[in-house]
Fold this sequence. Notes:
With 195 residues, the chain is α+β, with helices and mostly antiparallel strands. It folds into 2 domains: 3-57, no CATH class; 62-182, Nucleoside Triphosphate Pyrophosphohydrolase (Alpha-Beta Complex). The protein has helices at residues 3-18, 101-113, 173-182, and strands spanning 35-40, 43-48, 56-57, 62-71, 74-80, 91-94, 117-128, 133-142, 154-161. Strands 4, 5, 6, 7, 8 and 9 form a 6-stranded mixed beta sheet that branches. It has a 3-stranded antiparallel beta sheet with strand order 1-2-3, with no helix packed on it.
Amino acid sequence: MxxxxxxxxxxxxxxxxxxxxxxxxxxxxxxxxxxxxxxEGGMKRxxxxxxxxxxxxxxxxxxxxxxxxxxxxxxxxxxxxGWPKHWYxxxxxxxxxxxxxxxxxxREVKEELGLNGKVKxxxxxxxxxxxxxxxxAYDVVVEEGDITLDLTELVDYxxxxxKDVRPWxxxxxxxxxxxxxxxxxxxxxxxxxxx
Length: 195
């Protein structure tokens, strides 16, 4: 299999996994019985009707870590496989078992950019309803050095002067807006378009 095809396939799988929270379950993952809508915990949920199973699909939001990655007066933005060519965002990734949120944010920076960093502070926690996620965003200062992209997840990066960074109206865009405000910067928000 060619490396280009392999990266495309991995990118497709990454996008599919990234969107798993929005997947509509029809059958119980424990016993394979059909799921039906019930009221559990005061909300409509899908649950197994087999008496011996008691499975409930709670569909809780997934914790995602985000790093506003910067050095000197520049921010590093990344572009993931499958995104439109004009979309750039923050380094993000899922919170893994056995790590603190800060360690996870630094791990993602190292994995995606090949750079070591240091967490300066928590920027904020943001609901991302479209993806059923909770974003935990950190201010991360990275070391000098060459950026080495993780080509299984990313296709590009760009470096933008902090004063020129414009927030976007969704997901990690709320974190960058708050972070810029903390720097005394109130840039106009980018429009959110897919093409």
